[in-house]
Amino acid sequence: MHLPSHLHYSVDHEWADNLSGVARVGITDFAAEALGDIVFVELPGEGTAVMAGEPCGEIESTKSVSELYAPVTGTVVAVNPEVVADPGLLNADPYTAGWLYAVEITAGPRLLTAEAYRELCEPS
């Protein structure tokens, strides 16, 4: 499982690239692998208020449909049009090309470090 050390992770398998200002948000490699081939993504629109820990969209794969949870609280300021057009980017590159949306953060919960998230996903 690939986990960039500079990102912050939620227990719901989302990441945020910073915890102040504007952050890009996405799903983890662990989540993308568990979902299988991702075929559809429903994201919050620009201007939508999202709340940490609350559903804000859906990700559909050939296996299932899963809710997308916001890792931070704020307002969506951008949506990645490439991932909407090609949801498979989430499987191929979840941490760069597969980012989902950017949010102007007003509050954020305590997110996990890469090491803490790895321990959550791969308990000994």
UniProtKB/TrEMBL annotation:
The keyword Lyase does not apply. One of its GO terms (cellular component) is glycine cleavage complex. Its cofactor is (R)-lipoate. One of its GO terms (biological process) is glycine decarboxylation via glycine cleavage system. Keywords: Lipoyl. It comes from the Bacteria. Binds 1 lipoyl cofactor covalently. Residues 22-104 form the Lipoyl-binding domain. The modification N6-lipoyllysine is found at K63. Pfam families: GCV_H. HAMAP family: GcvH. The glycine cleavage system catalyzes the degradation of glycine. The H protein shuttles the methylamine group of glycine from the P protein to the T protein. The glycine cleavage system is composed of four proteins: P, T, L and H. Belongs to the GcvH family. This is Glycine cleavage system H protein.
